[in-house]
Every structure is written in structure tokens, then in C-alpha cells.
């Protein structure tokens, strides 16, 4: 009798915040790339335009309450991004979710870390600032580190070679001496 095979679960279905429809969000984003309560729209549109002027296709979605789980915001951002493309920032009063077809995950999460303010306009401004700030020149820093290590290795090699040559000279000079006065 063979043992039953365990079912390996596949990816979980998208879990969106209760009462949020991707279709309604997409319809709201269609005119200005912002889906938010009316008191925030004008300021958020200005931040979206600033991002677009710098080559970032940004959409901002603001929810009026936190979902059951923070991952629901990321799922919503992913669903919106799959339909609309670009970079999507989803904010609730206490949590943030992001998706981007253009930015790497490290940049996206670093920018996301600066958005926990509770104010959607300030959060979006912080996000845009973080995404637009130049990243460290990692290639240059890597090359400099490699050069320093190579110089240190070369200096160590030369020091050992000089020491070995000095030891050979000392050993040759202090070798067996023959004395004829006995």
C-alpha cells in the first residue's frame, strides 16, 4: 500500500482589503493616477506629477482604514500594477503596500520605509523623494574596495619577498665558518 501524497499548496489567491474593488480603483486612477479621499487628491496629484516629471510612472491609492493584514495592501498594489503598470503606492492610516514594474525591490522597500507617517501626502512626498534620490555609486565603491585589497595583497607579497631575501642573506653570511687556527 502506498503512502498518500501530501498536497503542496500553490500560491495563495490575492487577498484584497474588504470593500475594495480593483475595477473601482482603476476607474478612479484613470484621470489623474490618484484614488484617494477628496481632501488629499490635489496634493497627491502634484506629487504624482513630480514623479512623472522625473520618469517615474506613479499611481497612488489611499484607503481610509487599515485592512485586516498589511499584505493586502501589497496585493492590491500588485493587482493595480498588473492592470495599469508603472509603480503603485497603496497607503492606509498605518500600513503601506507597493508594486513596481520599473523599480527594483530594494529601492521600492527603502522608499516604502519612509512612508509610515499617517499623512498620505507626506508619505507620498517621502516615497517620491526616496525613489528620486541618487543611489550610492555601488560600482565605483566596489572597484575601490577591490583596488585597496589588491594593493594590500601586493604590499604583503613584497614585504614577504623582501623578508625572505633578507633571511637568505643572513643565513648565507652566518653559515659554517672554517677556522684554520687550531
UniProtKB/TrEMBL annotation:
InterPro entries: Rv1476-like. The chain crosses the membrane at residues 138-159. It holds the Pfam family Rv1476. Keywords: Membrane, Transmembrane, Transmembrane helix. This is TPM domain-containing protein.
